[in-house]
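Render this sequence as a predicted structure.
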Amino acid sequence: MAPSGRSVIRQGFILLFLAFLMGFGIIAGGPRARGWMAAHVTTMLTAGFVILIGLCWDRLRLSPRQRKVLRFTAVGDGYWGALAGAFATVFGVPGPATGAGAQPHGWPAVVFFGLFIPVLTAFPIIFTGLVIYGLRGEDAGGV
């Protein structure tokens, strides 16, 4: 069965809930508060993109396979990004906004830049391309 827009919207709101939970890391303060703030805000923005994709789902002119790829990359990017943010914060991988110019080093940096960043770079390109492609031509239906 092909995924529906409603299931994509639901996943977006689950991501939004996870983003809210990440906000508790900010409240706790301490040296990791900046990292939690970055993960919190990034996950909230990603959740918004997933919800928007779900809202325009019925208007996309895509094959069932393209819809599955779109859902996998959009929702997967959200969860993978939340996990990447939590990983970077817990293991102290400095970022451009959270590291005050410090260079990443050690095994956490290797894992982060070797495992998380390639996926977090490719997935948004794929899902954005599919949405743009799906919005071609006349309206596919919807309200």
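Summary. Residues 5-134 form one domain. The mean pLDDT is 88.
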